[in-house]
Amino acid sequence: MSNSVVNKLVVNKLAVPSFAPFWTLYEREMKRFMKVVFQTVVSPLVTATLYLLIFGVSLGDAIVLSSGLSYMAFLIPGLIMMSVLNNAFQNSSSSIVSGKFSGDLEDLRVVPLGNHQILWALSVGGLTRGLIVGLVTFIVGEIFYYVAEGSLLSVAHPGWLMFFLVVGGLSFSKLGVPIAFWARSFDQVSAVGSFVLLPLIYLGGVFFSLENLHPFWKVLSSVNPVLYFINGVRFGLLGISDVNVYSAAAVSVTALVVFHLIALRSLKTGNYQRW
Amino acid sequence: MTLPPPIQLDNLVKVYGSKKSSNNGSANGVVRAVNNVSLEVKPGEIFGLLGPNGAGKTSIISTLVTLEEPTSGTVKIFGLDVTKHPKETKMMTGFVPQELIHHGYFSVEEILQFHSGYFGRRKNKERIDYLLNRLSLFEHRHKKVKQLSGGMKRRLLIAKALVHEPKLLLLDEPTAGVDIELRTSLWKFVAELKSQGITILLTTHYIQEAEELCDRVGIIQNGEIKTIGKTKDLVKDLTKREIRLKFNDDKESRYTVPASKGVGELLAELNVDLKTIKDINIREGSLEDALRRVLEGPSS
């Protein structure tokens, strides 16, 4: 029997599992962030509470919006999306960076996990953490809103809300992958978070509406993809947005595709070896 | 039906620093870690890659498990090219890295469950418990890796590599930095794996390890295989034995002869009567002598 025939037999006999490796890595990601739940879920909850207390309760009455909504209501979707984006990014990036530090990132290379499986497991893991923290932020926001307004916020467009939360969370999970592969230390990942992502998120309309900005800043903000994520969520929750919802959806999906491709390339060419 | 060899390397080249062209050595930051290596490992054998630090042993193993891409040449596992069929070849391969791993968040048992799941075996408690018991880790299964001793961490790496019952096991310096007791027990375990039909490639710079375990060894230096052969044959072919004769009058004579030459032959050559000899002391050549001869040249 020729070698090529034997090879075909070997390949056919080896049923390479497709879903189990992905599911295992996803489960590992979930367990990883649940082991440090105080850091991953409770800490963002405290941050969101402080924002709502300072900006929503203390300063909210002094800010008047043309839509007629209270500033507290305006703030809640921004904070939800900020939580989702931050946590999704941190989950995937810290998974890779801690794997480089401990040496177990190499495991992903020597087991039958494809790059697509690794990327989607990390992305969905980050999204899950983002959505959990986003949900907790939403509940805290509802409590604050109820205390201030005597009623609960109802979701205006649930479909759009989920769409922007999922696309935004996946996008930032994927963005965490190339940045973690590029980083040579924990400091570098932290620096990207502090000096690039945080400004993008803060200047993406979490706390303000575009209509209040100087035209120069308005133009500058329009090239920030985070603006579209946040306004998309605001449209989903409140039914108002500074940008057209279809434009927001198009920009969000484009960002997702671009981040996906960059992340995939980093998985193919990145260094899995220990620091 | 003849199954293809567990490992087949054809003209493998691995260059770090540049993909294609380079000179030997490390000129201009380019290192040719593996230089046209061709070898075949036979089913069921323990093959040792023996050489000094930096010889290229880990680079070869890294290409087998796709941690590194070959610069040129082919790397096959059971006849399948690792670059074309990475998932299939990984399903058949277990890999024990040289460096210990910390796995910060998880317990020993969780690590093995995850590793098993990556190979599609999400319900694999029986095998995991067997390995935990066999490698004396069962009572430590709920501990995190940072709570384990160096020897336990090494055993955990071996358990991880075996959790999916591979046909080929790659051991990169499996006993580096471990005490004599653990080393001996690991050797025993490796021999047991061989008896179960697992093919094993191990890299080592411990001569005794290669001598104890390996059916065949390849001696590697500066990325090139200098010689390959059965361990016993290499010792026989490349070393000399020292025969010391003590005579009845307490005079001594020392002779260095080829390993294949017997005492009787020597005595016959020297025309010495056995009755005049009080004692005979023989020092056989070792794999270390063979290694030194290969690495330093025949004059040594």
Instruction: Report the strand count of chain A.
Output: 0
- The ordered H/E elements of chain B are EEEHEEHEHHHEHEHEEHEEHEH
Number of helices of chain A: 11
Q: Which consecutive residue ranges of chain B, at least 5 long each, have pLDDT under 50?
A: 19-25
Strand count, sense and barrel status of the largest sheet of chain B are: 6 strands, mixed
Counting DSSP E segments of at least 2 residues, the number of strands of chain B comes to 13
Order of strands across the main sheet of chain B: 6-7-8-3-9-10
Shape of chain A: elongated
Beta-strand percent range of chain B: 25-35%
State the end-to-end CA separation of chain A: 47 Å
**N-to-C series of helices and strands of chain A:** HHHHHHHHHHH
Give start-end ranges of low-pLDDT stretches of chain A: none
Silhouette of chain B: globular
Q: Would you give an account of this structure?
A:
With 275 residues, chain A is mainly α. Chain A contains eleven helices and no strands. Chain A is elongated and about 60 Å long. The relative contact order of chain A is 0.14. The mean pLDDT of chain A is 89. Chain B is α/β, with parallel strands linked by helices. Chain B has helices at 57-64, 86-91, 108-118, 125-134, 150-162, 180-195, 207-213, 231-238, 263-270, 287-296, and strands at residues 7-16, 31-41, 46-50, 72-77, 80-81, 93-96, 168-172, 199-204, 216-221, 224-230, 240-247, 252-258, 277-283. Chain B has a six-stranded mixed beta sheet with strand order 6-7-8-3-9-10, with helices on both faces. In chain B, helix 3 packs parallel to helix 5 and helix 8 packs across helix 10 (287-296). Chain A binds chain B through residues 1, 3, 6-7, 10-11, 14-17, 20-21, 23-25, 27-28, 31-32, 35-36, 98, 101-104, 106-107, 109-114, 272-274, and chain B through 1-4, 65-67, 78-80, 85-88, 90-93, 95, 97, 99-106, 110, 114-115, 117-122, 160.
